[in-house]
Design a protein that fits this description.
209 residues; RNaseH_sf; globular; RNaseH-like_sf; RNA-DNA hybrid ribonuclease activity; Nucleotidyltransferase, domain 5
Length: 209
């Protein structure tokens, strides 16, 4: 039987439901080189993030669809997902969380916290270095999860590269959480007025169970 400490070692594959942390950030990416006008220049990455935050006795959930910088490979797009998660952690002033990805290479590279010594994959070195720098003074754990536990982030990423980008802000940012007073969702208020270099937040939806 696998030792529990070994099972929960950062970078390993875990069952997300067994995490004890109150805050989780699931990340995923959608990337299609065939849809690019110039395959030599890569393709824009669609990033999806699913957030679960514990606030007192209530739980806040949000799905985020964003476009990221141009990626030259699928693994680069996945690494951009972690970089967006780091930006969100900063914007929401969260000091402790688990960041989850369904790409094992990215999970192990980020968990190693030594992008120069253990880059995992040279294509993602700079993104992992950015993630480590942005989360250096936070208690952030990184794990790999199977795709069946990452469905919400996956769908959010897919929407990012298929939806109409002309959607008005009132449709892009929405809150259906009954706990939040109409027009007073702190998560939306913070993200609506935050500029994230290299990313464009297309849709943010705050909701409850």
């Amino acid at each position: 039987m696998q030792d529990k400490r070994e099972e929960l070692r950062q970078g390993n594959t875990i069952d997300a439901s067994k995490l004890s942390t109150q805050n989780t950030f699931f990340t995923d990416a959608a990337w299609n080189l065939q849809g690019s006008q110039n395959e030599n220049e890569g393709a824009q990455a669609g990033i999806g993030v699913y957030i679960q935050l514990k606030q007192g006795y209530s739980k806040l959930q949000a799905s985020i669809s964003a476009t990221g910088m141009t990626a030259n490979s699928a693994v680069q797009a996945e690494a951009l997902g972690l970089k967006l998660a780091a930006n969100l952690l900063e914007s929401l002033h969260i000091q402790e969380a688990a960041v989850l990805t369904d790409n094992l290479t990215v999970a192990k590279a980020a968990a190693a916290r030594s992008p120069r010594k253990e880059p995992g994959n040279w294509q993602i070195r700079s993104y992992i270095a950015d993630f480590c720098a942005m989360t250096e003074f936070k208690n952030i754990q990184v794990y790999h999860v199977n795709r069946d536990q990452n469905s919400i982030a996956h769908e959010a990423a897919r929407l990012a590269i298929t939806q109409d980008h002309v959607a008005s802000p009132i449709h892009r940012f929405s809150c259906t959480n009954p706990v939040h007073t109409r027009g007073h969702c702190r998560l939306l208020q913070r993200l609506m007025h935050t500029q994230m270099q290299g990313f464009v937040l297309l849709r943010v939806n705050c909701f409850s169970d």
